[in-house]
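Lab notebook page, bench 4
Experiment: in silico fold of construct C2
Operator: M.H.
Input chain length: 195 residues
Purpose: comparison with the prior construct
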Amino acid sequence: MRVLAFFILLASMVTFEVKAFVPSEAYTFDFNVKTLRISRYKENKLIEAVDLLREVFASEEFKTRILNHRFKGKYRYAYNKGLTNRQIYNKILKGREELYPYINNAMDVEVGFFTNHKSIVIGYTWPQSKKIWMNTKYFNRFETEEIASHLFHEWLHKLGFDHERKRTHDRQFSVPYAVGRIALEIAREINEDRN
């Protein structure tokens, strides 16, 4: 009985941390983000956001949270194109955009800006364009984490993921919104750990 009590005590003192296996594609993922004619301020802000996304992609938390996302009681996303959470994660890491359908383990986009102070639109993209448009109304006041999240959200559209245009209940569970929110939360955690 003493031996059993000793092993129980020993087991309670030892903690095991279960780590998710993060594939090398998460560490080597590249960000080919181009801009045209922007200020040094905007360029630096965008570079900081991309650097933050690199850290998000390489984190165990990113993979774990994508795989464990639930919608209506099941491990899935709304508007998931029939893909499982693991398939969505792998599709992200492959970086195969609809416009340029080859696997290169990278985000390939051009970022442009527009200004509309009356609009609630943060940004947008079109399937037939490599460009992502960001509203300076939001870009100028957004924190780095929010810019990273928005860039990622729009790029997920480039992978073919969509959501409802109207603000419905299910829209927040779509791949662009849910995974974008995951990236935002992890980016905030990374920056909090730095401070």
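Observations: Confidence is low (pLDDT under 50) at residues 3-19. Residues 2 and 8 are 10 Å apart (CA to CA).
Next step: discuss at group meeting.
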